[in-house]
Design goal:
This protein is of the alpha/beta class. The protein has three domains: 98 residues, Nucleic acid-binding proteins (OB fold (Dihydrolipoamide Acetyltransferase, E2P)), CATH 2.40.50.140; 153 residues, Rossmann fold (3-Layer(aba) Sandwich), CATH 3.40.50.300; 59 residues, Probable gtpase engc, domain 3 (Ribonucleotide Reductase Protein R1, domain 1, Orthogonal Bundle), CATH 1.10.40. 30% of the residues lie in helices and 23% in strands. It has eight helices and 13 strands. The strands form three sheets. Strands 10-9-8-11-13-12 form a six-stranded mixed sheet, with helices on both faces. A five-stranded mixed barrel has the order 1-2-3-5-4. Strand 1 and strand 2 form a beta hairpin. Helix 2 crosses helix 8. The radius of gyration is 24 Å and the shape is globular.
């Protein structure tokens, strides 16, 4: 579509609207500064962003008291759920906190980003200790899908953990799925099984969550929201059912939010969960071939040892990864998964 030529009057109107928006933002920031100077806001205190709604945030005070709706100073960079911030509270005549203003953002340990439909990285959450990749017996997982999640997780530098949900649907011997998980365990990945059925179905998951900030990712319908509903019985979460025809789930979560677990395994420190909008697969279009290869942890010691520096690990002579596949040191299915992911980058 060709770009529409604007008349002089139309350009003037657009510039006027944009200037007014900028003035409103400056006034909000100036009002906050005046209120702070006048003592209408209290002393600075640390907190954690638990939800984000455009220019307003829910901030959880460090003392564990209920979250406070705050707005951001206009000069702040974009904040995301999980950010540690400095904020100031406003109180009513009775001394009750009515709102607040976020005045600064703390240093991030890490940030989880996801490509948008245009391929631009968009931050989703910050300060995460582990990414819980949830999959289930139904909808049936595929090794390549698990590998895609692992590659995406490895690219963030945040530790991934595989969570097999609905374990009550597994056959008595665990079946092919349990054998598949054994291969990931042999690579050093943590594997946890869970079920919302039965009294102790979440014991292993609770132990893994304790004292950590975690984010759930995975296909729709694997039970992320159902797990959180059991872990957080006092929260009102919308649960989606599997489609009877496609056996694929429906998206239920729309806003990234941080939840504090009410209990912990064996009396330890409770963990925190960030529930992000459901996605069917982690986009990898922002990664190149080298980053994908590095996302396969068994490749790392082999990279740089091929005969040719520009080796693409396909049919090149002297390829260290191909030789490792032939020796059985790299599983053939994982190598096929690598090729499939790289080919999908070329198609995007």
């Amino acid at each position: 579509m060709s770009k529409r030529n604007l008349s002089r009057q139309q350009r003037w109107r657009i510039e006027k609207v944009q200037a007014e928006r900028a003035r409103r933002a400056d006034r909000r920031d100036a009002d906050d500064t005046d209120k702070v100077a006048a003592g209408e806001y209290g002393a600075e205190q640390p907190g954690r962003v638990v939800a984000h709604y455009g220019r307003t945030l829910d901030v959880s005070p460090e003392d564990g008291s209920p979250a406070v709706r705050c707005h951001m100073r206009a000069n702040l960079e974009g904040l995301v759920t999980g950010d540690r911030v400095i904020w100031r509270a406003a109180r009513n005549p009775d001394g009750e906190i009515v709102d607040g203003v976020v005045v600064a953002r703390g240093k991030r340990a890490n940030v989880l980003e996801r490509p948008d439909p245009r391929g631009q990285l968009k931050p989703v959450a910050a300060n995460i200790d582990q990414i819980l990749i949830v999959f289930a017996v139904e909808p049936a997982p595929h090794a390549n899908l698990i590998d895609r999640y692992l590659v995406a997780a490895e690219a963030t530098g945040i530790a991934p953990v595989l969570v097999l949900n609905k374990r009550d649907l597994l056959p008595a011997d665990g079946g092919e799925l349990r054998r598949l998980l054994g291969r990931y365990e042999a690579l050093g990945y943590e594997v946890v099984t869970s079920s919302t059925e039965g009294e102790n179905g979440l014991a292993a998951l609770l132990e893994r969550l304790g004292g950590r900030t975690s984010v759930f990712v995975g296909q729709s319908g694997v039970g992320k929201s159902s797990l959180i509903d059991r872990l957080l019985p006092d929260e009102d979460l919308r649960i989606g059912a599997l489609s009877k025809d496609s056996r694929k789930g429906t998206h239920t979560t729309t806003t990234a939010r941080l939840y504090r677990l009410p209990t912990a395994a064996d009396g330890g420190e409770p963990g925190e969960l960030i529930d992000s909008p459901g996605i069917r697969e982690f986009g990898l279009i922002h990664l190149d071939e080298q980053q994908v290869a590095e996302g396969f942890i068994e490749f790392r010691e082999l990279l740089g040892h091929c005969r040719f520096r520009d080796c693409r690990h396909r049919q090149e002579p002297g390829c260290a990864i191909l030789a490792a596949v032939e020796r059985g040191e790299v599983h053939a299915q994982r190598f096929a998964s690598y090729l499939h992911i790289v080919d999908s980058l070329d198609e995007s």
